[in-house]
Amino acid sequence: KPPLVWKKGECQRTKWGCQAQAAVLLQWLLLFYLFINLSLDRSIDLLFHLSHLPSSPALWWVGDQGEEVQWGFEELGFLSRKAAEVLSQACGLRKGDRVIVILPRVPEWWLITVGCIRAGIVFIPATVLLTAEDIQYRLQISKAKCIITNDVVVPLVDSVASECPLLERRMLVSKGGSREGWLNFHALLEAASDEHQPVQTKSQDPMTIYFSSGTTGYPKMVEHSCSSLGIGLIASARYWMKLTPSDTMWGLTDTGWVKFAYSSLFSPWMVGATIFSHGMLQFKPTVVLNSLAKYPVTTFCGTPTIFRMLLQHDVSRYNFKSLTACLSGGEPINPEVIRQWKAQTGVDIYEGYGQTETTLVCFRSKEMKFKPGYIGKPCPPFQIQIIDEDCNQLPPGKEGDIAIRIKPKRPLGLFSGYVDDPEKTASTERGDFYITGDRGIMDKDGYIQFVSRADDIILSAGYRIGPYEVEHALSGHPAVAESAVVSSPDPVRGEVVKAFIILSPAYQSHDKEQLTLELQKYVKEVTAPYKYPRKVTTTSECPSRTDSRNRQP
């Protein structure tokens, strides 16, 4: 039995002559197996069985202190069976039960996630940046029976657990020992059997739920089935990422966002590629650049903000000897960033566009022409059209709604719906189309240009921020009589949150600079810190929601 942690200084990557054929065969075997048996859990066993070809690891993780963990597919299969046993036996979770997983990029995240899939448990990833109020909302609205997290988040969970009557189990991922009221994942994993038998699930059974910000109200629960992510993301692996078993993929995003499932879960493993991950808790440009030079990463994925921050350093002095492609998503990327990165590294950046509700919608790959301002072409199996309010297809060059055809047959890759909100789910459909909520243009060659959001969502450094969430947070401070939150352009983050504040009478004479700092600190304390307003303006009249679409400077 392999150890839980393997520490090695370097991995010897073995290449074989039929890598491409093996990758294609694996993909089609998985597709055939899934659609015949309508089961993702069994296909995981098939994947791990077929993919332990020569010694490429499934996961290569590097910690902040230089420690390393490497698991092959066979080891991952062994450990994830034990993790599934912990979830089903020690935690008492059954098929369809929901578990919230709040962990940073640590190896245990992958074990728990795959363990959930094996046991038919619906996993709900969440960012470690959540506040106690955010966690309470997610526990209550999701009706999760279990929460899994680390030492940092434990006090926040404990402070709201009494308000969450459906929460039955709390499990701690920590090497520092146990806590009262918490199960210890490492201790249970060590003692667990590796004989777990996967629970039978069907292709349309729920697999995961992601929380996604909206323009009104609290974040929505976006449900994906076993097929929509498990199989839908094979297309992104093949057409956009161009991954094969000889590749190593590094996606630099938070575990709480669906983009992590793209770059650091389904896409690489469904084609037998290696997932590389760095456990740094905060983004450090020099760590990223040094890691790209040191480790055999062939494909790197980040937001435009990440590439802009990396380019603030002299990237040309680094030798990325293994890097062959870079991917960008989460927000539109400036063509100048693509040009500068190519000039300094010799590597292209290929843009992709998708949503929490979808898998990859459209993309550019090396076979496609680079058209500044355009993302690329639709990703199979999606049929993308630009339509007007009456569902008429618009001619090339005309702006309209970016829409995905869902009739006569709903394509793989689309979400199942918003949990417990059929009205909101129905509002995303118009005629024969799913409406993305984004505006765009398609040219005569089929390339798509993103123009804007049709709503007021703020895209800042890859984060989706709903104005209502920030306004709600501000409303709790006694200085705020009224507020309006809008998007403001930013050269580094793309957009930032700007808040217009009408002060209550008691605060009219306060020092505006000090009050701004106080309000920013307050918002960081009551909601996820990335949502705080980086710009604050006091005013006698707040702009309307329509005005906010003008992207206030």
Automatic annotation (TrEMBL):
Subcellular location: Mitochondrion
Bilayer-spanning residue ranges: 20-40
Enzyme Commission no: 6.2.1.2
Keyword Hydrolase (UniProt): no
Keyword field: ATP-binding, Fatty acid metabolism, Ligase, Lipid metabolism, Magnesium, Membrane, Metal-binding, Mitochondrion, Nucleotide-binding, Transit peptide, Transmembrane, Transmembrane helix
Main location: mitochondrion
GO molecular function, one term: medium-chain fatty acid-CoA ligase activity
AMP-dependent synthetase/ligase domain ranges (all copies): 54-418
Residues forming coiled coils: none
Family: Belongs to the ATP-dependent AMP-binding enzyme family.
Designated name of the protein: medium-chain acyl-CoA ligase
Origin species: Varanus komodoensis
Higher taxonomy: Eukaryota, Metazoa, Chordata, Craniata, Vertebrata
